[in-house]
From TrEMBL:
PROSITE patterns referenced in this protein's UniProt entry, alphabetically: THYMIDYLATE_KINASE
Transferase recorded as keyword: yes
Source domain of life: Bacteria
Any Pfam family: Thymidylate_kin
Lineage: Bacteria, Bacillati, Bacillota, Bacilli, Lactobacillales
Protein name: Thymidylate kinase
Reactions it catalyzes: dTMP + ATP = dTDP + ADP
GO cellular component: cytosol
Originating gene: tmk
GO molecular function, one term: ATP binding
Length: 215
């Protein structure tokens, strides 16, 4: 595989979607190689349909293992249809969330256990791991305040509606993962302004993959 696989992770409201939009423009201008931006769960039609089922607030009866399996199933299809073919063509792949989200949200947030969730994801991905992960760190209070602004409770998705302690477990697990895999995961303070966050993300990518950039 010759491409580069970069993921962006973080608790809800960390600013991933906003940062990725700006990063995409900067990278498109400056990378010598093709770039695709994609997301999980989703990125391709089958996975986007699974996303709708998982996030639908009407599906409150969903069992936590069912939820973990649906995320892994969406991931498998996304990998096969989109990520792997792009990497094989030397493309730079920037993905909003990947396995670390399942470890943090299902493993820790839902308390299924990080090992159990890692194991179903090992099956789904056959061990594909990002080359670099930018972890946008924000405390749940700040993140949830951001996403609640201008929205009613009913407009929030099923995961956003989870309790503050659920979101605290998610952030705690992300921080543990960042400590465990310092060679892959770079933590960015996402309480800073968006432009600063984007600049830091861009600099980390550029430093690590200087050979892929126009000089
Ligand atoms: N650094 C920032 N400072 C203040 N507000 C921000 C920042 N980044 C994003 N926001 C705002 O926070 C809200 C959530 O941002 P965004 O959708 O990008 O987060 P996200 O990490 O993708 O969230 P989710 O995982 O829940 O989809 C948006 O209203 C956005 O404008
Ligand atoms: C990939 C993945 C995601 N989640 C959660 C995290 C978010 O609450 C939603 C996705 O929505 P976003 O707008 O993309 O942030 O799903 C999860 O629990 N497990 C996962 O593997």
């Amino acid at each position: 595989m010759t491409g580069v696989f970069v993921t962006i992770e973080g608790p809800d409201g960390a600013g991933k979607t906003s940062a990725i939009k700006k990063l995409e423009r900067m990278l498109k201008k400056n990378l010598q190689v093709d770039l695709i931006v994609t997301r999980e769960p989703g990125g391709i039609p089958i996975a986007e349909k699974i996303r709708q089922i998982i996030l639908d607030p009407k599906n409150m009866e969903m069992d936590e293992r069912t939820e973990a399996l649906l995320y892994a199933a969406a991931r498998r299809q996304h990998l096969i249809e989109k990520i792997l073919p792009a990497l094989e063509k030397n493309t730079f792949v920037l993905c909003d969330r990947f396995v670390d989200s399942s470890l943090a949200y299902q493993g820790a947030g839902r308390k299924i256990g990080v090992e159990a969730v890692a194991s179903i994801n090992q099956f789904a991905t056959e061990g594909l791991t990002p080359d670099l992960t930018l972890y946008l760190d924000v405390d749940p209070e700040t993140g949830l305040n951001r996403i609640q602004k201008g929205r009613t409770q009913a407009e929030l998705d099923r995961l956003d509606q989870e309790s503050a302690v659920f979101h605290q477990r998610v952030q705690h697990e992300y921080l543990k993962l960042a400590e465990q895999f310092p060679e892959r995961i770079v933590t960015i303070n996402a309480r800073k302004g968006l432009d600063q966050v984007v600049t830091e993300c861009y600099q980390v990518i550029k430093q690590k993959y200087a050979d892929k950039f126009h000089s």
